[in-house]
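Field guide to reading this record: the first block holds the primary sequence, the second block holds the structure written as discrete tokens, and the final block holds curator observations. Each block starts with its own label. This record concerns Protein PIN-LIKES 3-like, catalogued under organism Herrania umbratica.

BLOCK 1 — SEQUENCE
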Amino acid sequence: MGFLDLFTVAVMPVLKVILVTGVGLFLALDRINLLGSEARHHLNNIVFYVLGPALVASNLAETITFESFVTLWFMPVNIFITFIFGSALAWLLIKITKTPRHLQGMVIGCCSAGNMGNLLLIMIPAACEESNNPFGDSSVCSTHAEAYASLSMAVGAIFIWSYVYSVMRMYSAISLNSPRDNSGSETFSESCEGFLPIMDCHSSDDYTAQDELLLNTSAGGKIPIFKRIKMIMGKIDLKKVFAPTAIAAIVGFIIGIVSPIRKLMIGENAPLHVIDTSAYLLGQAAIPCLTLILGANLLRGLKGSNVSISVIVGILAVRNMFLPLLGIGVVKVANRFGMVGSDTLYQFVLMLQYAVPPATAVGTITQFFRLGQSESSVIMLWTYAMASFSLTLWSTLFMWLLA
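BLOCK 2 — STRUCTURE
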């Protein structure tokens, strides 16, 4: 396929995301107010507890077998690498831009955690639906695409709510000893509008002396690396790590891998096939709902903040330039050593995990701790606006390299 044909395939999924996101932003406007704070809260609950888990479980159960599971083992490793590279680049960005201490955790989160959930769930199946896609038969491609995206969503959520949540929690402790920034003028009940239910929100008072110790020693003192890792591990909230999406992924794996259970539930002649089809029907509603929520949450970024332009440009460079280039190298090396198989769609997904904008959960975590909400909203607005161009270009390049 020619480069122009690949560009056409790549641009269509991005346009779909932009259009639906725009609808969500429009519905959140004060004059419309169909996706206001309260409406987003209820829609978040439905997606978080019902639609998202149904989508992940049904897609994984239908497409994952023991044989395919052996091949997919590299995806969690690949996602882990994105977090490591992103954190390293964030550390350099913080040093170069002299990012204020209370925003450093947010910068690490934006650079390390990509949106590996709803964007991939929309973009990859949409690319498969194009008649001239380079991944083969559209129906088979779409089925595999949803499975890859669902696994990416589940694994990404585990890393976000273990590593990123713990890091940002420790950095939030500094706000107790510094003047409140502009974002602190917002009331806590108004700030908890993210992807997770409001009942999970808590204040930045929820910290320990270990948080202060780790922050102070990282600023100028010395602390053994193993003790620092132990501190971070101690901050992991298992309730958030094993969120409904992660639990649904485990259930989907069990159904797909264990042959007796698979024969009982998967397939047109399976006795309990109606359970799988019902879950799939519920899950299809997750994609448009997630995208509407994304657009509604971006509205806050239009109000602006005092975040440094250099920080925004740095995050844009990390997520739209350096990480995608590193991703190409990682996947190519993994393919050379036979760790990713020959499925070009799978390799495309692995590369795309490096090119997506920051995870919306990062904004949710800033809302949890009432620290840098307005700054994160502005960063999200700019990164997602830039992603409309960068994702198209990187998707085209990825497909060209794999075709």
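BLOCK 3 — OBSERVATIONS
The two ends are 7 Å apart (CA to CA).
The chain has one domain: 3-402.
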